Amino acid sequence: MEQQEKRKLALVTGGSGAIGQAICVALAQAGHEVWVHANRNLAQAEAVAGTIRAVGGRAHAIAFDVTDADATDAALRRILADGPVQILVNNAGIHDDAPMVGMTREQWRSVIDVSLNGFFNVTQPLLMPMMRTRWGRIVSMASVAALMGNRGQANYAAAKAGLIAATRSLSIEMASRGVTVNAVAPGIVESPMIGQAFPVERIRQLVPAGRAGSAQEVAAMVAYLVSDAAAYVTGMA
């Protein structure tokens, strides 16, 4: 793989999913060493890491539950044994949709737990090692639902809106240490489920480009935000 920048150690949570895979590949193509995270499906994370290694990149797989603070700490200690993580992409997230009138407590709690508490559990332990290097990039995957709302997604919108607010606050705290903190809020992105949720006609109504985005297009934005070229970009959502 072509190395474009000095190699950094990167962690991508939810790296075994469609968007996460694309991000992992993009970071590896930029010359970084990537840890591909999964929750339970370690085999899928291993497959992503194997694909990267097959074309000359450096990648490893790891599985842990971001909502379990102790398990997360243990996993991060393993990663930090290789050096400080200087690129963190918080991509882990779930949705469990229902109108709020029929939403269960578990639906509300679980979605917020992964996206928001998971963000804290992963990010906070990595901040001090990152700060010591005087260079860092943190990118979290939000959603347009956080900005516009979406029927049946009060829990998801609340979690992602909280993530954006946390991103802006953390960016202020970290700016003097050479660490940027940004959030990306993708719109409709191609996936196996998209046809059921968003028919082609609906996408054309909602999206100025008239089509869904691709995971690779999202990954390209993340790759820019973690690059040296984006050193002045922080607090963006």
UniProtKB/TrEMBL annotation:
Keywords: Oxidoreductase
Keyword Oxidoreductase: yes
Start and end residues of each Ketoreductase domain: 8-187
Record bears the keyword Nucleotide-binding: no
Gene Ontology molecular-function annotations: oxidoreductase activity
Record-linked SUPFAM superfamilies: NAD(P)-binding Rossmann-fold domains
Protein family according to the UniProt entry: Belongs to the short-chain dehydrogenases/reductases (SDR) family.
Designated name of the protein: 3-ketoacyl-ACP reductase
